[in-house]
From TrEMBL:
Gene3D superfamilies: 1.10.287.70, G protein-activated inward rectifier potassium channel 1 (2.60.40.1400). Residues 278-302 are annotated as: Disordered. Belongs to the inward rectifier-type potassium channel (TC 1.A.2.1) family. Residues 95-265 form the Inward rectifier potassium channel C-terminal domain. One of its GO terms (molecular function) is ATP-activated inward rectifier potassium channel activity. It is found in: Membrane. InterPro entries: Ig_E-set, IRK_C, K_chnl_inward-rec_Kir, K_chnl_inward-rec_Kir6.1, K_chnl_inward-rec_Kir_cyto, Kir_TM. This is ATP-sensitive inward rectifier potassium channel 8 isoform X2. It catalyses: K(+)(in) = K(+)(out). Keywords: Ion channel, Ion transport, Membrane, Potassium, Potassium transport, Transmembrane, Transmembrane helix, Transport, Voltage-gated channel. The keyword Transmembrane helix applies. It is a multi-pass membrane protein. It comes from Clupea harengus. The record marks 74 as: Role in the control of polyamine-mediated channel gating and in the blocking by intracellular magnesium. The gene is kcnj8.
C-alpha cells in the first residue's frame, strides 16, 4: 500500500504521463505491481525490472522503513521459534515428584512407591517412568564398583510402561527376588548407601519435543511403613485434585523385616494384615461414635431451645405507697 501511495502521489500511475519523466519506482503501473515490488523488498529476493530511482526521496524513506520493519519481524519470528523449541526445559519443571518415597504392603507384597504429577493441562505423550538403584557393590572377584546402576522394573497396567498423566499417579516397584532391595529390612535400609533415581520421559504435546524430568531419593528420604494419602476426590461428577496434599503420607502397619523374610515367613504378613484390619475397624467405630455423639448433641440443643421458648414469663408488679398494684408487666 505504501509503494502504491508513493507512485500515486508522484503521478507514476497516470497513463497519459510522458515517457521521458523519471518515476519513483520503475515498472510500477498498478496496485498489483506495487505489491510485487513490496514483496521483493521485504524478502530481498532482487528487484528484477522494478527498482527505485533517486528522483523520489519519499520512495527512499519507504525503502529504509520497510527494511527495518523486515529485520524486526524476522527477529521476532526467530525468537518465537527459539522459545517454542526451548520450552522442553520449562515443561520439565512442571513435572513434579513427591518429596519422599514410601515402602508399604500393596497387594500382599512389599512395594517401593513414589508419586508423580503434571501441573499443566497439556499432556505428555508416551510418558515413561524408569527407576534405577545406584549403590556401591563388590563383585565375587573382589572388584569394587563405586557407582553400580541397577535398572528396576515398575508396576504398569499397560505394556511398555506408558502412563497417562491425567492425574497424579503412584508408581510402584514390587520388591521381589529380582529387586536390589530384596534383602534390606527397615533398619538395614537406613544404614545402607544407596540412591534411587527416577526418570520421567515423554513427548510434549504442543511441540513434539522430548522432555525429561529427573529426581532421586536417598535412604533418608525413604519412609518405611508409610502410604500416600488420596488426593483425588469426586464431587458432583467432577474429579478434583488437591495438590496441597501431593507429598503427604500416613503411617500404616508394615513389617519391619525384609522382603526375603516375608517370603520365607508368610505368617508375618498375615499378622500385619490382621492388625491393619483391626485398626481400620477401630477407626470406623470411632468415626461412627463421633457422628452419633454429634447428632445427639444437636438434638439436645434443639430440644433445649424449644423448652426455653415454652417457659412462662413471670409477671412483675409495681405497687404504689398505698399498697395497691398500679402497673403489671409480663
Amino acid at each position: 500500500m505504501g509503494w502504491w501511495l508513493v507512485a500515486f502521489a508522484h503521478g507514476d500511475l497516470d497513463p497519459h504521463r510522458g515517457s521521458g519523466i523519471d518515476k519513483c519506482v520503475t515498472h510500477v503501473k498498478s496496485f498489483t505491481s506495487a505489491f510485487l515490488f513490496s514483496i521483493e523488498v521485504q524478502v530481498t529476493i532482487g528487484f528484477g525490472g522494478r527498482m527505485i530511482t533517486e528522483q523520489c526521496p519519499a520512495a527512499i524513506a519507504v525503502l529504509i522503513t520497510q527494511n527495518i520493519a523486515s529485520l524486526i519481524i524476522n527477529a521476532v519470528m526467530l525468537g518465537c521459534i527459539f522459545m517454542k523449541t526451548a520450552q522442553s526445559h520449562r515443561r520439565a519443571e512442571t513435572l513434579i515428584f513427591s518429596r519422599h518415597a514410601v515402602i508399604a504392603v500393596r497387594n500382599n507384597h512389599l512395594c517401593f512407591m513414589i508419586r508423580v504429577g503434571d501441573l499443566r493441562k497439556s499432556m505428555i505423550i508416551g510418558a515413561v517412568v524408569r527407576l534405577q538403584v545406584v549403590r556401591k557393590t563388590t563383585t565375587p572377584e573382589g572388584e569394587v564398583i563405586p557407582i553400580h546402576q541397577i535398572e528396576v522394573p515398575t508396576e504398569s497396567a499397560v505394556a511398555g510402561n506408558n502412563i497417562f498423566l491425567l492425574s497424579p499417579l503412584v508408581i510402584c516397584h514390587v520388591i521381589d527376588k529380582s529387586s536390589p532391595m530384596y534383602d534390606l529390612s527397615a533398619m538395614e535400609l537406613q544404614c545402607s548407601d544407596l540412591e534411587v533415581i527416577v526418570i520421567l520421559e515423554g513427548v510434549v504435546e504442543t511441540t513434539g519435543i522430548t522432555t525429561q524430568a529427573r529426581t532421586s531419593y536417598v535412604t533418608e528420604e525413604i519412609q518405611w511403613g508409610h502410604r500416600f494419602v488420596p488426593i483425588v476426590a469426586e464431587e458432583e461428577g467432577v474429579y478434583s485434585v488437591d495438590y496441597s496434599k501431593f507429598g503427604n503420607t500416613v503411617k500404616v502397619n508394615t513389617p519391619r523385616c525384609s522382603a526375603r523374610e516375608l517370603d520365607e515367613k508368610p505368617s508375618i504378613l498375615i499378622q500385619t494384615l490382621q492388625k491393619s484390619e483391626l485398626s481400620h475397624q477401630n477407626s470406623l467405630r470411632k468415626r461412627n461414635s463421633m457422628r452419633r455423639n454429634n447428632s445427639m448433641r444437636k438434638g439436645n440443643a434443639a430440644g433445649l431451645r424449644r423448652n426455653n421458648s415454652s417457659l412462662a414469663v413471670p409477671k412483675v408488679q409495681f405497687y404504689t405507697p398505698e399498697g395497691s398494684p398500679s402497673v403489671a408487666i409480663t
